[in-house]
Records
---
Amino acid sequence: MDRPEHLDDVTGAREAGGEAVRQALAGSGEVQDAATQSGLPLRPVYTPADIAGLDYLRDLGFPGEFPFTRGTRAAGYRTKEWTRRQVIGLGTAEETNERLRYMISQGQAGFSVCGMGYANYDSDSEHALGFVGRGGVWIDTLADMETLLEGIDMRTVTINQIGYSIPILAMILAVAERRGIAWAELRGTTQNCVQPGGEGPARHGNGAVDILEFCTREMPLWNSASISVRNTRDQGCTAPQEVAFGCFQGAYTLAAGVARGLDAGRLAGRISFFLSAENDFLEEVAKYRAMRRLWARLVRERFAVTDPRACMLRFHVQTSAINLTRQQPLNNVVRATLHALAAVLGGAQSMSVNSFDEVLATPTRAAATLSLRTQQILAHESGVTKVVDPLGGSYCVEALTGQLEEAARTLLAELEALPERDAFRRMEETTRDEAYRRQRAIDRGEIKVVGVNCFADAAEDDEGAPHIEVQRYDPTWRDKQIERLAAARRRCDPARAAAASARLHAAYRARENIVPPMIEAVTASLSIGEIARIREAALGEPFQPTTWNFGR
Amino acid sequence: MRVVLVQDSTGHSTGYYVVARALREAGFEVILGGVLLPAGIVRLAADEGADAIGYRIMDGSPVILVGRLREEMTRQGVGDIPIAVGGIVPDEELPRLRALGVAAVFRPGATFDEIARGLGALARPPSSGRP
């Protein structure tokens, strides 16, 4: 990137300077070869010689221009800040709605609710005993979705559907319809990702592809697939793996949509990503930049997409939870702030900052508000939003961005050389292997965790240690939810429910796009459990209780 | 020592598999039961002749789930198999779990060694001497 003759001077000088660094390290007993958290080699000092191969216009360009290494918007956060979109979900729809409205009154701009339709049974099932309202909100019927969205303007908030339960998507659409809001006006995202399965090249019967097809045709402002690698990362995989797995799943999803007959450019413009923000600050900033470059090139080269906007990698970040500790939980506030800062410097489009108490329970209202305030302090006080990609051009960050892209590209090629089911299995196995290695390294003290394997002395109560009030789970939530379900069943028109049920059954058997009959089914008040039984009857599948009921 | 490992929910189960691997490497025989209702857990533990049950609980209520498990164990006549719980357990629930006869609780921050030693200590007399 520098003038060639100058670069020679720098390279020469680096040799001399490098010797000084080596001696300093040797004298202090420090290791010579440091590495990032993911194991990428790190130099002690970076110079222009480390990015000699970088071509500014080709590899970086300007923010808002291909390959978007420096960001997707020309003026970055100056024209549009990231969306504050804290994850919320507890109790019944009533408790979650109350929390949502409070958070919106405090500056939250997005609806992001977890727990929606994760299980394939209803609250009155024996499988639900001990679960209702703990791992997110519990939803049985459309009446719950109406309560959940009560008092929330579906035209102004962006709606993030966590997981890709098709009955839940149908409920969101049904509530909009009842309010007279056209689906085409809705802005939001379904955390969708195509997995192997379905019949023929068009994968008929694959619900994830049905979502792509339906949203692409009916909802031009809706992201039909937010590829989630955040949770994979948060289970232990490395930064290059997060990038590679995301690009693999993104490309796989895009290819599945194209095989269904969707336009690659239109679909690509509505694929977004869900990423983590981890401890190694510089590596994380480089990760976001590397992934933007890799994804943009992949979409253009492989899918012949010409509209640069469709090549943009847009992403939501939920900060890491794996790094939050039960011990000395207030330390988590500091960790989450650093994670969030990395996401901001990496150019995230929206964010959820994990609360310091998430390792203890679902966050309290106070802890969730503190997470929102963390975002607001970064946006309004830190000053980092005034310049786009402020770390761009740093010898170190550019070198790391290149290393990340290269490592991810290699992993991506390995995955794509495998049969598709093996590739998905490989991602899972790799993540488990990395998680195992990481825990071993923590146990040995090779990875330092402050408050856990070092500096473990916590302040005592009489030393002014703050008292942490943990969210209480109300044991009556399940009774209340069962009563809500019973009330919905009493109001249900049996003839209409029977017709919707028959129509849904037939659609499953015919491998039709399942979203339109699902909208009829939820509108007729069929519950999540009833819908799952219809599917099983239609496809001859046995009932397997799951809390991962997605794409169905 | 034979340990039946089960979990309360389907998602986010990397930790479950990682702990299983660590236990195998520490010399345990590990039987993965996956997600089961308490009646199913007890049947599996009885069929496998388990020396201990390891119950990963992340989403559900530890007190409710372990309470149901205890009832089933008594009903099926295998009330003496020790139970260890791993996962998100609030401080205030620890005494209630102990009262339900839970022999060990492993929470975030537990090391592989602590889990292996804790489970190893639960071995009943016939299997003592083995890890």
---
Amino acid sequence: MSENINIKVKHLTRVEGHGNIVVNIKDGTVEKCQWQVPEAPRFFEAMVRGRDYDDIQTIVSRICGICSISHSLVATKAVEDALSIKVSEQTDDLRLLMHFSEQLQSHVLHVGYLVAPDLFSAPSVVPLVAAAPDAVLAIIKAHRVANEWSEILAGRITHPITIIPGGFSQIPTEAQLRQLQDNLKNLVDTLLAIVDVVLSVAGNLPAFERDTEYVSLAQKNNYAFYHGDIQSTDGKTMPVKNWEKVANEYVVEQSTAKWTKWNRQSYATGALARFNNNAEQISPLGKAVAEKFGLVKGCCNPYMNSVAQLAEAAHVTEKAIELIDKLLTKGLKTEKVKINPKPGRGHAAVEAPRGILFHSYEFDKDLKCTWGNMCIPTNQNHANMQLDFEKLVPEFMHLGEDGLRQTMEMLIRSYDPCISCSTHFLNVEFVR
Amino acid sequence: MRKPIIVLGLGNPLMADEGIGTKLIEKLNSACGSDARADFIDAGTGGMTVLTYIAGREKAIIIDCALMGTEPGTIKRFTPEDVQTVKKLSHLSLHDSDIIKVIELSKQLGECPKEVVFFGIEPQTIEQKMELTELIESKLEEYVSMILKEVQNP
């Protein structure tokens, strides 16, 4: 059957592009199929140059409104690595607890507000309130608990103000942690309700697979979010200080965002990558969620990233309850931050909700930043999205133009990309 | 304890005039951060977190950089009913959001403050730079006094 399809999904704003999907099919032959990211180059690395070491996290936390905790944490870790600053076990635990809160915030937001409308064939979450009110209310409850959780640890929901090199400027009270723990225990049923709703429409997730290299942090005894080495499902590992040898960033014509590759032409990062590298360490509740959807280690259906996010939402909730037990049993101590910073270069990685995030900095003898380098997870996924498209288009073009476009948009959404996140201005017309 | 009024500053201080909302929160906090009836929050580019911040309040005042088709530096007070959004969202990413739609969602959930007031400020430039333009900087006091009137004399 000969068929012509022309898809051009373009979203350009004044400042940044959002990513374009371009497909041309003539007489059933794919002539063009591209994932283009016409995003304005970012100058955040230049912005940190000349800044004091203790200003870095404040600046970089503004790179992204959804992953601001991850940017703050990875920057602080890299600064501490550069300046040979060690932190206490309590600081490490409280930071991990804060980091978990962002995973929950972001994952429920992504599954609830971006993926669920696809699965329910709704244009956005707003009409979903009428169509599936219980599901939306459950998602909002989970998001709100996660918001409050971040606020207790980070000082506000986004753009943390409590993290400083060497420790914290302010820590929560034990009463706040106890309240948070109660809230998390009460949240479990809500999370499971969300899981059941998504499970009821999971048949609408496209059946698409492509053998893929998955890259994430990994640790022997932990499902790694905050510490560990860089691990590939192809069997290679790399210490974090050598992250540039993993990313191997390069420039392509179709995108102003840099692409990356390690052992193959592309790799994927994100919840599914973490699951594929750390599945044995996921908490019992996380495992139970994965099993409900038939998610098993080695899965290479990119649409299952959203399912891995649900499993992780359960995991971080369960692990946070345990971590609060540990902190309360030991008793919270007010620790005065005493540091003796030495100039140098440092590197760090954390798992942002949408994948592995790298930062590196160098400081001179006055502890001013002389160099910075960052690599965000979404840039690490662009090449993989392109290769997914190249396999997906011939397999799904029988759906016709609308069906194919929808399937391709769902694919991009499943990666939970961070594009166009640094500006949120209003754009309005007056009607009265 | 949640105060009945919330003043939210949105925007990104790394993007020149786009950061006007967060800059004004800094100024408002210095001017009257101890106000018993109002919280002043720098919500940055948190997007959907606005839903959490405004829930159950009596009044929300939202300050944001706004493309309104007016002269750069213009400040306009308006309500959600006064405008229609023309912002094009990709719906590809969580990272673009439209506060007008967030207010709509809040209303549908039955938790939106009775009164929602926007102060939109027309930018001169949005680009990667940590300073406001001179034009916007020179008008900060004017903006602060206008917003304070809204907070203090409802």
